[in-house]
Automatic annotation (TrEMBL):
The gene is FAM69B. It comes from the Eukaryota. It is found in: Endoplasmic reticulum membrane. The chain crosses the membrane at residues 29-50. It comes from Callorhinus ursinus (Northern fur seal). It is a single-pass type II membrane protein. Keywords: Disulfide bond, Endoplasmic reticulum, Membrane, Signal-anchor, Transmembrane, Transmembrane helix. One of its GO terms (cellular component) is endoplasmic reticulum membrane. Coiled coil: none annotated. Belongs to the DIPK family. This is Protein FAM69B isoform X4. Residues 22-121 form the FAM69 N-terminal domain.
Length: 371
């Protein structure tokens, strides 16, 4: 990786050899660099445009299949009429061409509490009965992890569910992303040093008070995952790429694919053969300790959601923080990152640390235009 970064540095700052520069005395290197930079940026924009083209998702192909099943009476849904007959649903930017992850219906420990909500939603045409097509459609939707979470979590921190047709569902628009390197091609992301990531965030991201407001929403989301009405959930990919916000800078979780019910994570980890802790990983960063004597993974995670989020917030909030707040904020974030994932310790410290952080940030932005 170091060699790749060195190569990128040489290509970026040394586009021509000194010998060539000597043979072209009238050519200034800085102008050549600007031309090269323009070509690179243009190529990047073309790549981003192509990679987000709707054809990669084949949305129109899906629409043909779904509408064919709808007209045959096989499936149903609240937006089928708009999608297939009135053509009010438009396919625009393709956000991901990767198939969505599936989830077992039994993975949610408090699923019975959702039964009433599911049955109410299943009656798409509001005729007080659930037809076979409606039942098939709801069952297909419940196999999708994100859809199940949208039902379980409050709309305040997750995208609002607008409707469905078969196993296709529509949510409100994707919020703004907090990580401005997310639009980079995957091959170029490792070449950016961490310092440049921080600089991009500072230059292109929201002002610090807005970041504080987004962070408060993220902390409230963590609280909901821990004390939710439908059980405990784990964030298993804690990155800024998943932190989104609305036009009013209210936090929205941009991607729920890596948020998993506690029962699912424990069932995957507990008793799993391991040689080291890295063998006991669910998703990207839901990691449990490895019992090296038994060579089995334990059930408790090393880090709870809050500790991982606080690590994220150190780079997100400390740069540009007000001078009178920076020291105390840094201290509380350091304390937060040391939280253990052991069940006996999480309950005792989690709520207290989270409350202190929210209060500290809220005091700074309350009674201002940022609140």
């Amino acid at each position: 990786m170091r060699r790749l970064r060195r190569l990128a540095h040489l290509v970026l700052f040394c586009p021509f050899s000194k010998g060539l520069q000597g043979r072209l005395p009238g050519l200034r290197v800085k102008y050549v660099f600007l031309v090269w930079l323009g070509v690179s940026v243009g190529s990047w924009m073309v790549y981003v445009h192509y990679s987000s083209h709707a054809e990669l998702c084949r949305g129109h192909v899906c629409q043909v299949v779904i509408c064919d099943q709808y007209r045959k009476g096989i499936i149903s849904g609240s937006i089928c009429q708009d999608l297939c007959n009135l053509h009010k649903v438009e396919w625009r930017t393709c956000l991901s061409s990767v198939p969505g992850q599936q989830a077992n219906l039994g993975d949610l420990p408090s699923l019975p509490a959702l039964v009433g909500q599911v049955l109410l939603m299943a009656d798409f045409n509001k005729d007080s009965r659930v037809s076979l097509a409606e039942a098939k459609s709801v069952w297909a939707l419940l196999q999708r992890n994100e859809f199940l979470l949208l039902l379980s979590l409050q709309e305040e921190h997750a995208s609002r569910l607008l409707g469905s047709c078969g196993d296709l569902y529509v949510t409100e628009g994707v919020p703004h992303g907090s990580w401005h390197g997310a639009a980079l091609p995957p091959l170029l992301r490792p070449l950016l040093p961490p310092a440049l990531h921080t600089a991009l965030q500072r230059w292109l991201g929201p002002a610090w008070p807005w970041r504080a407001k987004i962070a408060i929403g993220l902390l409230e989301f963590v609280e909901e995952l821990f004390h939710g009405a439908y059980g405990t959930f784990y964030m298993c990919e804690t990155t800024l790429a998943n932190v989104g916000y609305t036009a009013k800078y209210d936090f929205k979780m941009a991607d729920l694919q890596q948020v998993a019910p506690e029962a699912t994570v424990r069932r995957f980890l507990q008793g799993r053969h391991c040689e080291r802790s890295s063998d006991c990983t669910y998703g990207r960063d839901c990691r449990a300790p490895c019992d090296k004597l038994m060579r089995q993974c334990k059930g408790d995670l090393i880090q709870p959601n809050l500790a991982k989020v606080c690590e994220l917030l150190r780079d997100y909030l400390l740069p540009g923080a007000p001078a009178d707040l920076r020291e105390e904020l840094g201290k509380q974030l350091r304390t937060c990152t040391t939280l253990s994932g052991l069940a006996s310790q999480v309950e005792a410290h989690h709520s207290l640390v989270l409350s202190h952080l929210k209060t500290l940030l809220w005091k700074k932005i309350s009674n201002t235009k940022y609140s």
